[in-house]
Amino acid sequence: MFWKRKGKAAVKARGSFAIPDGQRVYAIGDIHGRDDLFAQLIEQILADVAARPADHITLILLGDLVDRGPKSADVIERAIGLREQFADLRLLIGNHEECFLAALTGDVRRLRYFMRIGGDATVNSYWNSDIALAETSVENVAGLLPTMVPESHVRFLGMGEDVIEIGGYAFVHAGIRPGVPLQKQTLADLRWIREEFLDDGRDHGVMVVHGHTIYDDVSEWPNRIGIDTGAYKSGVLTAIVLEGSARSYLKTGLQSDNSGAGAIVQG
Predict the structure, then answer these.
(1) 68 or 255: which carries more pLDDT confidence?
(2) How far apart, in whole angstroms, are the C-alpha atoms of residue 2 and residue 215?
(3) Do residues 12 and 220 lie in contact, with contact meaning Cβ atoms separated by under 8 Å?
(4) Average pLDDT, integer, range 105-124
(5) CB atoms within 10 A of CB 186
(6) Is 236 helix (H, G, I), strand (E, B) or coil?
(7) pLDDT at 257
(8) Half-sphere exposure of 84 toward its Cβ, with a 13 Å CA cutoff?
(9) Which DSSP letter does residue 182 get?
(10) Strand partners, 91
(11) Which of 66, 70, 89, 118 has its CA at a distance of 20 to 30 angstroms from the CA of residue 56?
């Protein structure tokens, strides 16, 4: 459910943070099962790379590939295939991947929680039983689902990272605990934190690029940049493009005229 977070006056993030010379970074926000938008955005990125070659291209997926949208299995399969086009492909583990992997242990309690936060769409994207998903018990789903998810998908998600540092930028899924060094951040904060990070204006020493919290548009602040634009519902999937001290954005669909301090949703 969408809810409104009290907005602040729009502030542009300062431009003193930089990516090392010769490198360009593309980081994609929360995809949440929208393989159609994922495919469109990858096409835009490849076209940008072709038009503006760089010595080293890094593609980062900020996590929450799965849940809510209809094609989570296809999103993961596409992400795995991107290794053929992007030699430096990196994945962050989001809170939804964390819950998905937990649900694949066969634990009924964990599966119930996963399905409550949008995992029902993920389960449906993998379900290949003769028994309709809506007609079977959660206990049966807990037993069958692990046999339906390809090992390559589990292995890919299991190789995901929690923090990626490149130059003056740190990429995380949800955010960081302010005042705590990056190397001492907990997984719970990196994958789940919200207000304590979003409402803190102190300098983190790096520019933090994150997803997890949905805004109407890219949310730029002096210490963080949020690029989760709610693709599963809005049709807008966003990538930040970083090269040197410059940054720009690629997006699918039509973007709202509202400022970056607009509607957000629990991730």
Answers:
(1) 68
(2) 10
(3) yes
(4) 97
(5) 13
(6) coil
(7) 34
(8) 4
(9) G
(10) 61
(11) 66
260: which 2 tokens? Answer: 């970056």
Joined tokens for residue 201: 């204006």
DSSP 77-102: HHHHHGGGT-SEEEEBPPHHHHHHHH
Which residues, in sequence order, are CB contacts of 230 under 8 Å at separation 6+? 30, 214, 215, 216, 236, 265
* Type and span of the H or E element at 207: strand 207-210
**CA 205 to mean position of chain CA atoms:** 22
Helix (H, G, I), strand (E, B) or coil at 135: helix
Amino acid, res. 192: W
Give the Cβ contact number of residue 154 at 10 Å.
15
CB 174 within 8 A of CB 194: yes
What is the three-class DSSP state of 112?
Answer: helix
Domains and CATH numbers, the chain: 2-265 (3.60.21.10)
Q: Record the tokens describing residue 157, joined without a space.
A: 């998600």
User: Two tokens at 229?
Assistant: 């634009």
Q: Which residue has the tokens 């090269």?
A: 243
Q: Which two tokens stand for residue 96?
A: 């939804």
| Residue appearing with tokens 């995380």 | 172
d(CA 62, CA 155): 17
Q: pLDDT tens across 50-90, in order?
A: 999 999 999 999 999 999 999 999 999 999 999 999 999 99
Residue 263 to residues 18, 40, 86, 171, Cα–Cα distance (Å): 29, 24, 33, 22
- Amino acid identity of residue 32, one-letter, is H
260/219 Cα distance (integer angstroms): 4
Q: Give the rounded distance of the alpha carbon of 67 from its chain centre.
A: 11
What is the enclosing helix (H) or strand (E) of 243? strand 238-243
Q: How far is CA 149 from CA 132, 156, 192, in A?
A: 17, 12, 25
